[in-house]
Structures are given as structure tokens and as C-alpha cells.
Amino acid sequence: MGWADAALTSPVTGLPLLADTAHSLAGGSERWPVLEGIPFLRADRRSLADAALAALDAGDTEPALVLLLGDQDNWARTPPPDEAARQKLVSNGYETFREAMELLAFGPVATYFAHRWSDPTFMSGLALAEAHWTGGRIFELGCGAGHYLREFARVAPDVCGADIVFAKLWLARRYVAPTARLLCFDAAAPWPLADAAADLVFCHDAFYFLPGKPHVASEMLRVAGPGQVLVGH
User: Which of 34, 53, 140, 194 is the least crowded, having the fewest Cβ atoms under 10 Å away?
Assistant: First the structure.
């Protein structure tokens, strides 16, 4: 599922972003890369976005993907994966979910994701959503590798997930939630989503570590419009 019919805006200027090529979005003088249907809109990674765009414009998809798979959040406890491991993952394409996470140097996060399906907090999030979702579009903030998105896609007509780490979204695309719309941006910056873009905004096991919580909460309410916001842990 792509972004062709969705309204995205620049996290820097707020201008509408429209596809100018098959691998990029543009608004005004800005351009942002899109890999495997995932727009990379991290306002704090402008130089990385430009490097990925340069590779894509030259027709070099693999180098662009290798670049973005090395990006992390600012509070990562493990060093980023080395370039050789990322290149192996991109070139080979036969690794399992767990092998991919090992090559991406996810460390303890890999164990968390591998066992997420049976984690009591995951089950409580499903119960929270089931109790309050009344239908319509679902947007998940901090979706990680897409475990909730996979479940939401079974019942919701439009499912979108966002995370600050591109590699997690890539795992969601390749292994966990291939039909979901995915978006990489920093929740501490202005969100690149329109008002009332979702009927339910969901965030579970993530809100507690996000910086700038008043801003994040305000954006969640804006994107939900007259819909609902569910935050759990």
C-alpha cells in the first residue's frame, strides 16, 4: 500500500509533498527519498536524506538502502551495524527476520521483537485496541517492526505505521506487515500528516520514552481529529 492518495507535508516547511519521481517526494525546493514505499522524512537527518536521494537519482537503489539501514534513533544503546553487514543484508535477501536483525545489530531489541507476539504488554495493547476501536483508519506511532500493524491490517481498511528508525520499518515491510503504509519521521518535529488523517491514533510501549511529550500528544490529537487516541504501556 503506497502514499499515492495520502496527503503528506514537509516536517520542515509544512508544504504539501507530492511524488516527483518513483523514488522521491518534493515540496517547494525540498526533496525526500522514498525506498520500498517508505518515505524518509527525518528533519534531523537532512544530510542523510540528501545522500540517499543522490544515490537514488543515479539509479543506485542498493547504496541508498544501505545508507538508511544504518540510521538509528538518538538514544540507541548499541553501535550502528557496520556497512558490510548492511550490504550483505541488502544484496543477499534470503535472511530470516532474526538473521536480518542480527545483521542490523539490534542487540536486545532483536530479542524483544522476536518474542513480541507473546509479550504480555503486546497482548494488553491488542485488548486496548479491541475495546475502543470502532472502525476506520488506524495510525500507529512507534510501530517498530510492525507487529500491531499486522494485526490491525486484518480488520482495518487503512493501516499506517510510523517510526523514527528506518531499519525497523524496512523489517516491517519485508517480514511482518507488508501491506501497511509506512512512514519514517521524528515525532519531536512537526508531523508530516494532515489533520484528522486517522480515525484512531495508537501508541503502545513507546510514548514513555519519547522526548517532547506535550508536542507529541498535541500532534496525536490533531491527527486523530474527532477520532480516538489510545496510549498504553
Answer: 194
